Amino acid sequence: VAIVGVGLIGGSVGQALRAKQLAKEVVGIGRSTAKLDEAVALGAIDRGSTSLEQGLQDADIVVVCTPVDRVAADIIAAARATGPNTLITDAGSTKQSIVEACEADDVAIAKFVAAHPIAGSERSGAAHARADLYEGRVCILTPTAQTPIAFLERAKAFWSSIGARIIEIDPATHDRHLARTSHLPHALAAALAAIVTPAMVPLAGGAYRDMSRVAGADGSLWVKIFLENRGAVIQALSDYNQTLRSFESALVAGDAELLRNWWESARVNRLAYDLQNGLGSVPSGGSGE
Amino acid sequence: VAIVGVGLIGGSVGQALRAKQLAKEVVGIGRSTAKLDEAVALGAIDRGSTSLEQGLQDADIVVVCTPVDRVAADIIAAARATGPNTLITDAGSTKQSIVEACEADDVAIAKFVAAHPIAGSERSGAAHARADLYEGRVCILTPTAQTPIAFLERAKAFWSSIGARIIEIDPATHDRHLARTSHLPHALAAALAAIVTPAMVPLAGGAYRDMSRVAGADGSLWVKIFLENRGAVIQALSDYNQTLRSFESALVAGDAELLRNWWESARVNRLAYDLQNGLGSVPSGGSGE
Hints:
The structure is a homodimer. By secondary structure, chain A is an alpha/beta fold. Chain A is built from twelve helices and nine strands. In chain A, the strands form two sheets. In chain A, strands 3-2-1-4-5-6 form a six-stranded parallel sheet, sandwiched between helices. In chain A, helix 1 (8-19) links the parallel strand 1 and strand 2 (27-29). At the A-B interface, helix 8, helix 9, helix 10, helix 11 and helix 12 of A face helix 8, helix 9, helix 10, helix 11 and helix 12 of B.
């Protein structure tokens, strides 16, 4: 197995493969020899290479884990550097633009299966990689009518082998839903962090801590994701703003019943999350802080 | 010590006092005999009473832990039911309206010290109380020029004795800052939950999980807090909206540099939180999810 981009995401794939002894050899491909050496020392890969062509020789599976603005180009390059039986999959947070770019390339389309494992951290780098990062987490696959079934089955088996639960949806739905469940929320975390100055921080409790956590993430990665999924993020923000305007007008009017109804209609969605994730129902909620 | 309102907050005060053997007796005052019996069974109080007058007899300290719209009236009633040496403190999430109401009452003002321990959970009820809920957490005291120094010192000693770190600020600053660090964030969590339907929930990762957690809280409690601190919450929302508009216009323009600058100016605030809370600096942030 070859991993292109050995950071938190790629490094965790490597650690999982090595911990479970699923691959004869795990090769990391990156631009920095120092980072590849570190990844070897951390047990994320068996060896590193700064050359795509050399690193991908003999690879049965290539996992592209570079930032979203580089994923499509790296998939296409990997497709050209490997034989017809090499499965190529990725871990990009957006899917439609990546899938479109790859489907425009005859070589890539014949062996690429788009994937997005829903796992990570606000930390980055192989130093924060974990062999169990994908254990029990969802990995979304976004095959299209053009995706070869045999490769789709291999991609399912691959992501399952490192612990992920597979969900299949189409790329556009992926991007529309992820704009709401992940991309926009990162911007909202940053917007909240922006209005809480360091002087107020000693007064912040659990709500602020959890809601602003991902604002500590790497901005350059997130700016790329926002731009790759711009349309869906703008639409999600428009709906979010509409929801907030309902809250604001009920608050300005001092209308307790409107506010309660507004809260309850949101709360049922959160309770659905709790139920689906085995957190149990919360028959009587508390103060939240 | 008497505790008026034995839910998560009051029950945790009682459990801490009993675990540390700080009080001769902990008496709970509430409206429901069944809930008081449950609080006794859970070890939160020694005995319960549905009568304020009877429950407060011989109390050295009264802690009012009822919902914010009832706190001021309960403090004033407790002040009238106790002698001149009884300290009365509270745990209300808003402070200015409570302090104003109590300062308009000659009996209450002579022995009341306003407090807000920054601790809690999205769960409620004595069943979720914990003896260590206040351990290492901040308790904000909001004394004014009218607060008797001797009672202020006793309030500091009381909240410190159950593990809290004391911060003193004035009631208006408390409400302005808490609107940003706690009250508005609860509404933002609900607004996010509102746009993520149950069908999208399987695609939600850590960012959604943490950012919507408090949307599971009891709406009736939060509606009261929003209304009690309406002006500051509306102002905080206005600043938040302005921040989001900057994000939106940079995104619509596709301006990566503006987006990166926007993200970084928010991120430094979050890193200040990490530093102050011993979470260490995060030299290179990750993907966030």
